[in-house]
Amino acid sequence: MTRKIGHRWQGSIELLETIRVVNENGFESPSMPPVQTPLTFDYVLVAKISDDENSHLVRKQKAFIETLKKKLNIHKFRDDDDNKVFYCIRAPEKIFETYRYLLKVSDACNWSCEQQGTIPQSTRIRIVDFILHHTHIDSEEGVSEYLPDLMKKNVFETHFCLHEKREQKELKQSWARWSACFRGQPITNVRNYLGENVALYFLWLGWYTFLLIPASVIGLVVFLYGLAFYSTSPLIKEVCQSNVIMCPLCDNTCRVWELSDTCMYAKVSLLFDNEGTVAFAMFMAVWATVFLEFWKCHRSSYVSAWKVFDWCEEEEELILEIVNNAHCEPKMHRHSYLRSTIVLVLVTLMLLVIIGLTHVLVVSRVIATVLLAENSTWQVITENSQTVAVMLGAVLHYITITVMTRVNFTVARKLSEIENKHSHAAVERSFTVKMFIFQFFTMFSSLIYTAFFLGRINGHPGGYVRISGKWRLEECHPSGCLTDLFIQLSIIMVLKQTFNNIFEYSGPWFSRWLKRKKAQKFRRRCVKCFKKEAMNTKEGSELCENCKLKDLHRNYSLIKTDRFSLFNEFLEMGVWTDVLEAIGVLAVIANGLVIGISSDFIPRLVYQYFYGPCASGSATGIDCMVGYINNTLSIANVSDERVREDFTSSQMVTYSGINVTHCSYRDYRSNEDFSLTNQYWVILAARLVFIILFEHVVVIFKCVASWFVPTSPLDVTNERLYDKLRRLKEELRVQRAQQDPLNEKLNGNGIEKRTSNQKKANKLNSM
Question: Where is this region: Disordered (predicted)?
């Protein structure tokens, strides 16, 4: 395959080629797919061979096949050894001619008819798949039964499309292998073989992966910045050299402990919670906008080159309806307030269930902390019961995410079916929105609690908040609340990546291996077919019966897919563009809240300028953050009766055997009556001001970045304008060419008629 001479790639595509996201050199022009003559068939239906030819399953099977034969060409292959029958389907060319014509005369898809001069294999399969799923037979009860209904009743076992081995082998060589990672993706060939949605997904994935490089570099710089200065930080010295005695972290078994015990955690926490973190958060918010805007630009370049810029899925469904049945009736838009109310109630209940699971995770962590502290035989677990409970909670959260992802998928599909949308595209959009909402609450509810509520609603010595009046609500990690968030995120990400990759690789491989073991008898191939495949395939070339059965079994052993198979990665880009924009806005809000609430960045600034040694402006030769750690601590006296109710006398003894009369805890409270100090309210006000300023500044940066990167490049806009003008001129030329012979004929008839009338008049005058 060679690149079209004289074809000029658009600037966005050339950029993607330069950075090795795509590799179109030596491949087909994106506007015209190659002519693909299928070696075998477009689609295959599989059923089990039944000994009873008069059973109702066989009768339904024959009725459905006979109905299909009125539209499609069907060939039957029996495999008595495996007790299967394969109905191989090939669509006649008149179906695709009708499809092309209807595209041309449609309102929204007419521009794409230019690239449909030769139907790519992916489009052929989509058309046949639509016909299969919209063909029905009438049951004995008078109910219409479609292919999914027949498969549920075991009339048919499965259905699949056939891979063309030649194109599949070429894609494996140039794309689906580890050695091709740095060569760029042959996106046009992927599109020609797998369709536009799949090609756009891998284009998005390539662009996303490439743009992660600058983000990771900046993140590494911020990490190295924290690593370079944390050893000289007065905050670290203050923690590591402190003699402050801290209050017990749990009831009964936990003792008072020294602040210096958290020296290591304080160092790690400062690596991720420093001045560079704020700059990195702002950078990532702008990065998300740049990524999305450039993605829109690249996407518009490719869909323009593929001539599907104005593609309307609803209109294509109408076209496919007519292709399937020329006398079809339109499926009217309907709105049912009852259905909408039911769906709204069910969505609300589902969200309440997900939020309830978050509460269960919180309660389980609280109980686990107590049980580990009181019953563990290992001292290291007893002393770090809260950290171990956070880790166990993260593992439970990962299990919850894994289970609820499947539940959410099923519930979202059922709710989308209840809505009874007028088109499959509308069903997919509705499903995408519901699935996104469910997954958002499933993944982030527990993290939101950890980031914004943990350690802020647990009370204080002498007034702890307890669950059922028994279990004390957990506190933040001794080194800060950000450490809990870091631990939970790290465990979830490691588990998710590890187990997901293991199952994604091993699951399909084992399934294919198991099915291939059953088809060993078809491994040997005849010499005739081997030579035929080695030669250039010509139209009408066929394989022998044995090799056809082998090819059918090879495709039968592959993993079944449908239009929702790629959802967990990326599907339905119309909808997902809006989802990604929403995520970009949420990212700005989340970053602002994490820095303003979870991080110690704001309390440090307030201390530096209002309460520290530099607050008066007269201090010289001293670090402005000296004394910050002690400033963040409040004191609880054992002489207070309320404190004695929370702590036993054995808890107020250090591990070295020293009895203490007071202990410290992290909060801004009075040492006498535990009321909040003025500094607490100043910090709270500063947090709110920072969040508002941060979000406004970042949003301005996002708007500027969005304005600088056009959604549709100028060369795409100009090319579309040129193509529309050329198409209109061509249609005008065709219309005039059709009218000229008609005018000549009309003019000729008029002249003959006038001549005849003149002759009659002359004859009358001569009389």
Answer: 743-767
Q: CA 483 to CA 529: how far, in whole Å?
A: 64
CB 651 within 8 A of CB 643: no
Buried b (16+ CB within 10 A) or exposed e, 156-186: beebbbbbbeebeebbeebbeeeebeeebbb
Of 237, 42, 64, the residue nearest 128 (C-alpha): 42
Backbone region of residue 300 per phi and psi (left: phi > 0; alpha: psi in -120 to 50; beta: other values): alpha
Which tens digit of pLDDT belongs to each residue from 399-423?
999 999 999 999 999 998 888 887 7
- Do the beta carbons of residue 118 and residue 35 sit within 8 Å? yes
Q: Helix or strand or coil: residue 36?
A: coil
CA distance 419 to 415: 6
Give the DSSP letter of residue 139: -
Query: Beta-carbon neighbour count of residue 596 at 10 Å?
Result: 22
Q: Encode 45-61: b = buried (16+ Cβ within 10 Å), e = exposed.
A: bbbeeeeeeeeebbebb
**Residues 723-742 pLDDT 10s:** 778 878 887 888 888 777 76
**In angstroms, how far is CA 215 from the centroid of its own chain?**
20
**Whether the predicted pLDDT of 535 surpasses 80:** no
Give strand pairing partners of 676: 669
- Yes or no: say if 306 and 86 are a contact pair by the CB < 8 Å rule: no
Please report, rounded to a whole number, the percentage of residues in the chain having pLDDT higher than 70: 85
Q: Which residue has the higher pLDDT, 182 or 186?
A: 186
Are 430 and 416 contacting, i.e. CB atoms less than 8 angstroms apart? yes
Coil/strand/helix, residue 527: helix
Q: What is the mean pLDDT of the chain?
A: 81
365, with CB counted inside 10 A (0-12, 13-18, 19+), is buried
Q: What is the pLDDT of residues 27-68, one digit of tens each?
A: 444 554 554 444 568 889 999 888 777 788 888 999 999 999
**Distance (Å, whole) CA 302 – CA 220:** 33
Q: In 3-state terms, what secondary structure has residue 1? A: coil
What is the C-alpha to C-alpha distance for residues 431 and 422, in angstroms, rounded to an integer? 14
Strands 73-79 and 84-90: antiparallel
pLDDT grade, residue 539 (50/70/90)? very low
Cα–Cα separations (whole angstroms), residue 639 to 5, 256, 314, 670: 90, 16, 75, 15
Whether residue 385 contacts residue 481, with contact meaning beta carbons closer than 8 Å, is answered with no
Tell me the three state secondary structure of residue 48.
strand
**Would you give the distance in Å from CA 450 to the centre of its chain?**
24
